[in-house]
Each structure stands twice: as structure tokens, then as C-alpha cells.
């Protein structure tokens, strides 16, 4: 993947609001596809998508068509390999705070002081 795509992905998932939006879009797209392939109601399909995305898999509903199975596989892989790591990374980033790091204002003051020292030399 190019760095532009990675940067775009990272910046588009900075907030909880954005992550929830991505989750809901995945659920509703998968639900609509599942409903179409499996001829189920949208409500039943939403239930199926939530259960499948959380890797619970009660077994009360499962796909029998090829299209439904492909949707299931894509939903499971996108949750396990894309969405859940994004949530984990965001939580970890919030928990790991370098209290020794300089603030932007402090960095600017240091740069200004260094310029003054350099100019006096």
C-alpha cells in the first residue's frame, strides 16, 4: 500500500465518531447484501451482521447461498483484520502518553532561544 493510502486511512479513523460510522456502514452494507442473497428481512439481516461481526456466531442464522457466504467471509475478515485493529490502535494511542514530551509551545520557545544563542555567537 502506498503511504498516501495509509495516511488517509489513519486520518479518517482518528475519532470514535469516525470508527462508529465505519462500523455502522459495514454492518448496513453487509446486512443489505445478506438480505438480498438470502431473502431475509432487513431486521434479521442486521441481527445476523452484528452477530457475525462480533464473531459470536450463534448459529441461528447462517448463509446458504454462495453470495451470502462471500458477504459473510468479507464481513468477518474486515472486522477481524481491519476494524478491530483500528479500535485497538486508537485505544492504545490514547493510553500511551509521553508525559516527558514537549508541547508545541515549549518546542517553539526552545527554537527561539536556540536562534537567539546562535545569533549571539
Keywords:
mainly alpha; Helix Hairpins; 75% helix
Descriptive account of the structure:
- This protein has a single domain, classed as Helix Hairpins, CATH 1.10.287.70.
- Helix content is 75%, strand content 0%.
- The chain has five helices and no strands.
- It has helices spanning 3-11, 16-38, 42-53, 66-95, 104-120.
- It is rod-shaped.
- The protein starts with a helix and ends with a helix.
List the helices and strands and how they pair.
Layout: H1 3-11, H2 16-38, H3 42-53, H4 66-95, H5 104-120
Helix pairs in contact: 2-3, 2-4
How would you summarize what this structure contains?
The protein has 121 residues and is mainly α. 75% of the residues lie in helices and 0% in strands.
Give the fraction of residues assigned to helices: over 70%
**Largest β-sheet summary:** none
Rg over alpha carbons: 23 Å
Specify the CATH class: Mainly Alpha
Shape, per Cα inertia axes = rod-shaped
Amino acid at each position: 500500500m502506498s503511504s498516501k493510502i495509509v495516511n488517509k486511512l489513519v486520518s479518517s479513523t482518528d475519532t470514535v465518531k469516525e470508527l462508529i460510522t465505519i462500523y455502522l456502514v459495514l454492518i448496513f452494507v453487509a446486512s443489505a447484501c445478506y438480505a438480498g442473497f438470502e431473502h431475509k428481512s432487513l431486521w434479521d439481516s442486521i441481527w445476523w451482521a452484528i452477530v457475525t461481526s462480533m464473531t459470536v456466531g450463534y448459529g441461528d442464522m447462517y448463509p446458504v447461498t454462495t453470495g451470502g457466504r462471500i458477504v459473510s467471509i468479507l464481513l468477518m475478515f474486515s472486522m477481524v483484520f481491519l476494524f478491530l485493529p483500528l479500535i485497538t490502535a486508537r485505544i492504545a494511542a490514547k493510553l500511551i502518553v509521553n508525559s516527558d514530551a514537549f508541547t508545541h509551545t515549549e518546542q517553539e520557545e526552545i527554537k527561539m532561544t536556540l536562534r537567539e544563542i546562535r545569533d549571539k555567537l
